[in-house]
Amino acid sequence: xxxxxxxxKETVKEFTKLIDEYPIIGVVNxxxxxxxxxxxxxxxxxGKVLLRMTKRRLINIAINDSKKPHIDKLKEYLNGMPAIxxxxxxxxxxxxxxxxxxxxxxxxxxxxxxxxxxxxxxxxSFAPGPVIGELGSFGIMTAVEDGKIAIKEDKVVAKEGEVVxxxxxxxxxxxxxxxxxxxxxxxxxxxKGEILTKDVLDVDEDAYRKDFQSAAVMAFNLAINAGYPTTxxxxxxxxxxxxxxxxxxxxxxxLTDETVxxxxxxxxxxASVLNSKLDIKAPVEETKEEIKEEKVEEPKEEMKxxxKEEIKEExxKEEEKVEExKEEEITPEAEVSETKVSDDAQKPEEVSDxxxxEETKEEEKVEExxxxxxxxxxxxxxxDASKNNEKDSKES
Length: 396
Prior knowledge:
Elements: H1 6-21, E1 24-29, H2 35-45, E2 49-53, H3 56-65, E3 82-87, H4 91-100, E4 103-105, E5 117-119, E6 122-123, H5 131-137, E7 142-145, E8 148-151, E9 155-158, H6 166-175, E10 180-182, E11 185-191, E12 194-197, H7 198-201, H8 205-226, H9 234-251, H10 260-277, H11 284-350, H12 356-395
Antiparallel strand pairs: 1-3, 1-11, 2-3, 4-10, 5-9, 6-8, 7-8, 11-12
């Protein structure tokens, strides 16, 4: 039976204890990692990640001794110069931290390509010469543009895992292609019985953030369209309900405080369209003004006519009053004259000694005086009537 050194036993026990203690165990390939870069990574991961490195055979023994389920699947990723990461951090955040702290570097002769090495299309700094043949030996299509060699299309010169020879390494260095990434190469991570590979852990954070944003927008739109009230949607749902109810009221011509202005404007627009179709020349405002003027002018003309009739009637009444006064003035005198005549007529009866001729003469005189007074009165009445007519004509 072979003898096993004690320090190796202690190393296996230490690794087995760490594997059982930490929930996250990662496998890292440290091949081609400069010591300086390794020290920088240790400083950045201090306090979050514990990094341990030993021989691959001892790591396999520690994994076999561990009690965690399916932990033995990590042995498939112990390639190159393996090391073990022990952490309690999220594996995705761990991979992101390691990836951000990597730097580019040229590949050396004899090194393995970490991924497909591609020479991109574009102009180079080389002048036409033997370089064209060197590039052609790797299947790179070239042309001369503006006195410089230009690569026409992208070309894969080494596949992932292939060993790069000195000639290709020299061409890549002269073209400025740096395919190597100096830093910790995290191959896989164990978490709760599952193995998360590099492809799963390498998440594009920007694309992932955009996916979350689009998912949130779609969920929000779904809640709005379905009428599902939440803290984010209740305000918009109330606004949408108010807008829909107003639109329904406008469609059904229902008068409310919010729709009355719109409905009146709509009615006015329809009326104007109807007027234009019926070829009504007079605007609505002018017809309203004409109606108002007609209503105002009619009573004025009637008032004038009535006033004129009253003016005409008043002088007629005044004439009647004047005539009545004149008749009243005339009647007393006539009565006095009649009384005198009667008295005179009685005198001959009392005085019997006067002759009959004198009596007849006196009667004739009295009658003549009566006729004269009557003619004078009629002349005066005619003069007054003519004056009144002249006044009426002037006033009219």
